[in-house]
Design goal:
The protein has helices at residues 41-74, 79-107, 109-128, 133-161, 165-196, 207-220, 234-257, 261-281, 297-327, 332-356, 362-381, 390-401, 403-415, 423-456, 458-483; strands at residues 19-21, 24-26. It is mainly alpha-helical and 491 residues long.
Amino acid sequence: MTATISAPAEPGGTEAGGTQVGGTQVGGVQAGGTESVRAERRAWIGLAVLALPTLLVSLDVFVLVLALPKLAVSLHADGTEQLWIMDIYGFMVAGFMVTMGTLGDRIGRRKLLLIGAAAFGGASVVAAFSTSAGMLIAARAALGIAGATLGPSTLSLIGTMFENPRQRAEAIGIWAGCFTVGAIVGPMVGGFMLEHFWWGSVFLLGVPAMVLLLIIGPKLLPEYRDETAGRLDLPSVALSLGAILPVVYGVKELARDGFRTVPVLAAGAGLLVGYVFVKRQRTLADPLVDLSLFAVKALRTTLGGMLLFSMLGGTTMLFTAQFFQLAQHLTPVGAALGLLPGMATSTVSFLAAPVLARRFRPGALITGGVVLAATGMALLAFADPAAGPVWPAIALAVTSSGVGPMVALGTDLVVGSVPVRKAGAAASLAQTVNEFGYSFGLATVGTLGNAVARSAGLPAGLHVVAGLAAVAFAVLVWFAGRNLRSIRPTA
């Protein structure tokens, strides 16, 4: 699936006068050229190289959860320091994602990817051998900034390497599936490492892969930069950080500790700076975020759907994991096994969605996926603690089976909705939505669920969270069916 909004012609690119989807045109003149260009074997080998940082960034998040108890004892980290060790990475990723996506378009996507890989590997070594909590927090902050370069760079390079809509959709499906593979493999690998080595060993898992990327990347990955781009607008960079970081901090703190003055003020200040940021983007000839993207109805719907999935999916999974352990009295390993069917079905969904999009309308697939997600959430909302863990595990698997079309095909729509020269900025927009959605979901739906759990028990909290998700997805079914129906099957 691909889409191209109106944009000036660019060297080696295409010119469109509307939204082009799967080799057809919606509301404009047929754009020419790229549909017949098929990637060769070299591009698919390059995709395997790009999958490494994607897999390892996901894995890194999950192994830290397991390592936290040991490192807290070893580094004498108090409760506040432990929270910063966990959270600082996400803060930096969310804050720098937009900037890094745009920077890659300007200095070169492969160049930025290699710089980020080198920084990620170096920061991982520092984290592994940290001798104090402060040192580890600083290393995790550096990991977050480096991690912000990896996602937009890999995703925009996929857009460069795979011009054919069908192949690009398949490549993005594989790329997206690496996140859930990391979530599945992370606890198992991390548990093995922690049983046989010291806590810092889990941070070294990504170093060999980053070294391999630095060696092979220049030989297999193409370089692309926007030769026509103006200078990076530094005030916009400062404003984006001033908007995103306080909001993410505020919603995380509100989710954790409830209503307090400082987080509320931080979130409010971030929203105010965000307003100034948006006003500035409207005045720039070459903005950090191209707000004209939001003029495309299909793109607005897709980004909104991805936001809902990250908000409600992440929060529900957290409550389900707690349900397994606290209501079903499963061990951490047992709880992980209860989540495994959902992880597996989401991986299959990521891989299957692009293949199905060859024969069926992507809009119909996305809508059908949302129906599955709503159905799974409804089943979870009626999970009976007395019935055991099987019912919620199945319900979560049904929900996860609907994730693939929205995330894989939706991400492809976002990346394909801009000229090639702006793919990095578009990729960063999609990933920022996901990062922010998870934090915002915990702060809103998660806070409500916790309040219900405190008064009526954890199962009741899970029922409320899942019930709200089911209603939200049911509404999304209507919007997706209405706004995405014109998207044609991939060529």
